[in-house]
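Worked example

This section walks through a single chain of length 484. The input is the sequence exactly as stored; nothing has been trimmed or padded.
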Amino acid sequence: MPLKAKITNPAYQAQAASTASDEYAEFKEQPGDDPDDVLFNTLYGVRTIQLNRPKKYNALNGSMIRKLIPRLKEYQKSALASIIILGGAGPKAFCAGGDVSHLASSITKDGDAGRLASKHYFGLEYRLDHLIATYPKPYIAYLDGITMGGGVGLSVHAPIRIATENTTFAMPECGIGFFPDVGGSFFLPRLEGYLGTYLALTSSTLKGVQNLYAGTATHYIDSSVLSNLTSRLAELVFKDYDSIRTRLHIIDRTIEEFNTGLPHDEPPYLAQNLRLAIDFCFRHDTLEAIIAALEKERDSAGAPQQVKDWASATLKTLSEKSPTSLKVTLRAMRLGRNWDTAETFNREYHIAAKFMQHPDFVNGVTARLIHKPATKAKWEPSTLSDVRPEDVDYFFSIEEGEESLELLTKGLDYDRYPFQADLGLPREEDVERLVRGERKMGRKEVVEAMVGKREGKIGVREKVEEVLARRCGVDGEGNVVWKG
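Given that input, the structure is written out below as tokens.
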């Protein structure tokens, strides 16, 4: 039968519709779903996806997830879809998180039924996040605005993450009686040093270009050129045999065409003495030891004032978080270093379900997000000393016969991001490897070698110079020497 006849044949159409319906039955539209909360568009080989709840800062909900998963699977199969770009509507947010206010209200109103519905929501969300983390085509996230919680899950596992001057990144979960989920147990421990642990426990924000330096973004451009970048990416034509690595490299070089320079007045902030203090304090495996280290920095006569002030502010911040959330999060940061992507989302699914049973989630969300103005949450228990090791163990236990998360992608999991070394800024270990190499070099030579290796990528020079200043000394001949 000719192709045209197949397309117009009613029997063939019914069969195709039935197959598609069966495949995506669990993601079908439900009563109350907004038909326009996600917008899809096509521009040659580019498929753009826009989260479209600007009045809610594009907060992710079930209706949006039920649209995103089938469409991403459709794009995955289509030979015409070459690049996926995800962005957010409105001037303020990429995605400010999952709609946890709705979940907490549901638990308050419906009890166990609300907890079950919340667990189902997290299952949907994590399956979407895992699909993105293992997506076999170039996937780009425009982090143009607030990027928190669920928004991090939609973006942080993408091989290309573009920050702008409007980006505000954070994982605020410990402040609402939850934990940094959406794959945070995978992503955060793999940031350099103990920066991920610091961000997870304190909910500290990274703004603008600081995301490039910290590794939460792979690129930085001005928001005014994003639409032009989209049009330029639509002009790209890949060879059928090009690997995804090759395609990502071409996209990386194309993004650099829109480089307008870095903000001259915003050098790396989590750097030098402050970064050393972060690694010193947050390397410990207990909250009690982290707090003792912070107190030592705060009270040290020899510490720079910037570090003393930072330590004092960080101690205050930690005192306001859920003690249970802090201890569960720290455990996840340590265990997550050894999880692959599949285990991460399965583990987080079980942890999230247990938080739905814990009073801190409803108390925290209600106090911080539902009450206007926000109020101080009442944590149960209220102190770190009252959170016992067995209380933390409970969150990581999986009962025999307990359901696992049915992931949508098989066989593409990993324990290290596969394209990190190609697309983001160089990591400390890259600089260390060069400095410890057989050839001795001065500071300028090291910097120029790294810049040349990355084809002049924006931010490489600044990042390498910061690492050299913090981690290296100079011998009598002017050659760089790695400390420690």
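What to look for: The two ends are 71 Å apart (CA to CA).
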